[in-house]
Amino acid sequence: MLHNKLLFTGIFLSLSLFSSAQAEEKSDGWHLVATDTVGYTGVTLANGSIGLQTGRNPFEVQSVVLNHVFDIADNQVSKVMQGINPFRLSLIVDGDTIRLKDMSRWSQTLDMKFATLTTSFVLPQKVEVRCSATTLRNVAYSGLIHLSIFPLQDIQVSLYTEMSVPAQEYRSPQKEYRTIWGEGGRTDILRVQALSRGGKQSVCASSSFLYDTSCWRYQGDKKQASASLTATLSKGEKTAVSLVASTCSTRDFQDPVNESERRVVYMLHEGDTALLSRHHQLWEELWQGDIEIEGDLKAQQQVRFALFNLYGSGAVGSRLSISPMGLSSQGYNGHIFWDAEMWMYPPLLLLQPSMARSMLDYRFDRLAAARKRALSFGYKGAMFPWESDDAGEEATPTFALTGPFEHHITADVGIACFQYFRATRDTTWLAEQGYPLLQEVAEFLTSRVTRRTDGSYSICNVTGADEYANGVTDNAFTNGSAILALRYATQAAAICKRSCPEIWKDIADNLRILTFEDGTLQEYEGYQGETIKQADANLLAYPLELRTDPKLIRQDLRYYENKIDQQNGPAMSYAIFAVQYARMQEPEKAYQMFLKSFVPHERPPFGVLAETPTSQNPYFMTGAGGLLQAVLFGFGGLTIDEDGIRQLPSSLPSHWKSLTLKGIGPDRKTFVCTH
User: Fold this and answer.
1) Residue 14's pLDDT is what?
2) Domain Glycoside hydrolase family 65 central catalytic spans what residues (predicted)?
3) Whole-prediction pTM value?
4) Structurally, how many domains does the chain consist of?
5) 467, 523, 586, 602: which is the annotated catalytic residue?
6) HEC profile for 365-422?
7) Residue 558 sits in a domain of what CATH number?
């Protein structure tokens, strides 16, 4: 039988897991360890196509988040879907189902290098168990749960699995237990397919055990669409078993039913050792883009955790972007915001340019939808939605004014577009995709501005990065991003030897940036020091780099630092302040800001980031992008300009011994920063 042939690899793996247990008991730069469940927030294991939200219970994935699989139900906006969950196990020892309360010496270790969460525990006097969960990088839409079992006395052990169908997501689930007889022998598969509530998607999940038939006895229940394994084990008789599963949808496959089965069959034939070996290899390749901090373990862990989450949420060649919560949850309905281009994209552009390219591909593929949207509002060019769903249409809930009025998003897309060219120097891409998109952005901005009697220009009735101020005129960041996007469009036209309208330059030179009498930036016309949601005017110094005078930058920082909502403001503002202080060679002040960008947002036990100090909506990928920018573009001094990726003078906190930035840009350069 098929399973017989494969088990020996599983046993080998289990023995290695047990032998390495001691090495993983202590947190380090690659491992995050939890030893209690107080205030517990689980980590997400993702591979760019699905995300598995883990929990305290080692045998149960709490939810499966599908990447860019959207449906509309109950007259609401489009929302990314949870998948049918095939990653559910129960462990029964001597007739008793093991619960969390029964476990002693419980601990969890997140191995960020190989993207695996391992839970270890002891059932006193009976059995020691290690359970490892992985979302496979090498098999999209799929994952693996591996159990290693070490009996402390003679016991009977059973494993039970069935699937969970989120009732709020699906209707008419069809559950099946199937036995397939094929060239590889017998294969037993559980399969559940269902239609999304709104009827847009069909989703199917399949799963199967990978086990030793000489040790385990298999039983399938066709009525319940469940399966179990039972073994009688002697004291000291180590054994192992794996559950492999896949969740597919009609967004990605015309036939998700058979595709989910094919992936399970493939994994059974490969075996767990081969699967995990390739998975590890692919993650090692991703970690060629890495950040090493010597002298600050806390910073090292959080920076690498940020990379781990961003890398898990994206995929090379997917032509998809990343939502604010990535694949950790359905937060913000899985829509794509400016968070993608202005926060997550810059560090990925340095460390994973091919993954960053997919984020731009997402926008390019939806350019027609953006053109249609601009036309529908009486504008030219392309008007990108504030919250984009899979079709590239506006998906902002109607109660939020950000949808109709937060127009800096279009300029942000244009800025990211030209930065890709600057980083890669890919003139073919610029001519074929970059400039056509920039041209549409410039045309929109040209039609969006209002010419004033003095020859200057305004942008009226907008919402800026500070979303507490709606319907304002001449918002600093909106106007600043428009200026930069128009300049980039003009430069791109020259590089591609295309003519462009003179008005692009005229608007860029004359679009109003307002200041107070002392020269401090004024966030918008009429602004008088009101509480703001997040940094807005300060963004003109970085990332826009339109504000260059250190005296004025410091002045802006001092004015706006205390204007930010301390309870409900998102994490990114202080990361931006950190970049600016670091570039002005004030590393200790920069470090204070850096800590403020993540410490209040950490949730135990792993340090998962929430959006605000008071929220519970992790993992916040936007915040991850911000703190990575603080390190790369601040302490590390990297910049992207007309000369490509280069390094300004670095500026390290006194206790950091060194900072090493690896795999930067298309040439995979290394930058070492010291005092």
Assistant:
1) 40
2) 304-527
3) 0.95
4) 3
5) 467
6) HCHHHHHHHHHHCCCCCCCCCCCECCCCCECCCCCCCHHHHCCHHHHHHHHHHHHHHH
7) 1.50.10.10
